[in-house]
Design goal:
mainly beta, 6-stranded mixed β-sheet, 3 helices, 8-stranded mixed β-sheet, globular
C-alpha cells in the first residue's frame, strides 16, 4: 500500500476551501492601461499598486484616509439600493428593464489593477482601476459600467449633505462609460473631497450589458431605453478622518486601536469601519461557496 502524501492532501483541502470568483486582485503585475472612452480623449494609467491608507497632518492634528472595504467585495447580483436608484432614475415606464445574468462571469474576469488611498493638495480620496478580461462565454458586445455612490458630501453642496445616486454624466444614459473615464474593457475613478473634513464614500460598480449609445433624432448621443442585464459587480470605497493630536495612533487607517481619537479642533469623525470589514472578510471566506451559487432575486422597479 502506497503511503499517504500528506502535503498533497493539505494542498487539495486548501484549494477546495478557497474558491475562485470573477473578482481578482492583481496589484503585482506592472503595466499601462491606455484607452479612449466614447467621444473623448485618450487616457493612460500605470497600474500595479495598492495602498490601504495614506496618513497626513493638518496643523497639530493627524489625519488619515483609508480604503473600505479592503479588499473590495464581489457582488454577484444587484443590491436593493442599486435596484431602487435605477428604478427611480431610469424608469421602466420610460422603456428601461433590468435583470440579473443567468450565468456568472468567468473566474478572474474582473481584475482590480489599482486600489489606493490618496492624500495631497488639500484633498483626500481613493484611486480605482478595473480591467474586464472576458472569458470564453462572457459577453463582448454592448458591455457597459453602471456605478451607484453613497457618501456624506455631495459634490457642489455643503459638507454633510448626503448623496445616494446613480453616477452618470448625461441625461438619459445610466452608463459611467458614457462621459466617464471608462470603456467596455477599463474602468477608472478617483473620487476626492477636501481633506480637512471627515468623509465616507462607497460605490457599487456593476458590469452590465445594455442598449448601445447612439445618436438620437435630437442629435444627442444616448442609449435607447431597453433591457439592462447585470453581470456582476464590485463594492469599493474610502473614508477619511482626524485621528487626534500629538503622536499618531497605532491604529492608523481608521484609528481602530481606540486611542488618541480626540482632535485639537472640533472635527466630526465617522465611525471607523476597518475592523468591521476585517471580520466580515473572515466570515466571507467561510460563506463564499454558498454565496457563489446564490442567484439574485431582486425585483427592479
Amino acid at each position: 500500500m502506497r503511503p499517504l502524501n500528506v502535503s498533497a492532501i493539505l494542498a487539495l483541502v486548501v484549494a477546495l476551501g478557497v474558491q475562485a470568483t470573477p473578482l481578482k486582485l492583481d496589484y503585482n503585475t506592472q503595466g499601462t492601461a491606455t484607452f479612449t472612452p466614447l467621444r473623448s480623449q485618450e487616457y493612460s494609467y500605470n497600474y500595479g499598486f495598492h495602498q490601504h491608507n495614506d496618513p497626513y497632518t493638518i496643523g497639530p492634528n493627524n489625519w488619515d484616509v483609508w480604503l473600505t472595504p479592503d479588499p473590495p467585495e464581489y457582488l454577484r447580483g444587484a443590491s436593493v439600493n442599486f435596484a431602487n436608484l435605477m428604478g427611480a432614475t431610469f424608469k421602466t415606464s420610460d422603456g428601461w428593464s433590468y435583470q440579473s445574468a443567468a450565468n456568472e462571469l468567468s473566474d478572474n474576469s474582473l481584475i482590480v489593477r489599482i486600489y489606493a488611498a490618496r492624500s495631497g493638495s488639500d484633498l483626500a480620496g481613493a484611486e480605482f482601476l478595473v480591467e474586464y478580461a472576458p472569458g470564453f462565454q462572457d459577453p463582448l458586445l454592448d458591455v457597459h459600467w453602471i456605478q451607484v455612490i453613497t457618501d456624506n458630501h455631495a459634490v457642489g453642496a455643503a459638507h454633510g449633505t448626503p448623496e445616494n445616486a446613480v453616477d452618470y454624466r448625461y441625461a438619459g444614459s445610466p452608463y459611467y462609460d458614457h462621459g466617464g473615464v471608462a470603456t467596455s474593457t477599463w474602468f477608472y475613478d478617483f473620487p476626492k473631497r477636501e481633506w480637512d473634513a471627515a468623509h465616507t464614500w462607497t460605490a457599487e460598480l456593476y458590469l452590465v450589458t445594455g442598449p448601445p449609445v447612439i445618436e438620437q433624432p435630437d442629435g444627442k448621443y444616448r442609449p435607447t431605453p431597453g433591457a439592462v442585464t447585470v453581470l456582476g459587480g464590485i463594492k469599493w470605497g474610502w473614508e477619511n478622518a482626524c485621528l487626534g493630536g500629538g503622536a499618531r495612533a497605532a491604529g492608523g487607517g481608521g484609528g481602530t486601536d481606540g486611542g488618541n481619537m480626540v482632535c485639537a479642533d472640533d472635527v466630526s469623525t465617522p465611525e471607523a469601519g476597518s475592523l468591521v470589514y476585517l471580520l466580515s472578510g473572515l466570515s466571507l471566506l467561510w460563506a463564499r461557496g454558498a454565496l457563489r451559487r446564490a442567484r439574485s432575486s431582486i425585483a427592479f422597479h
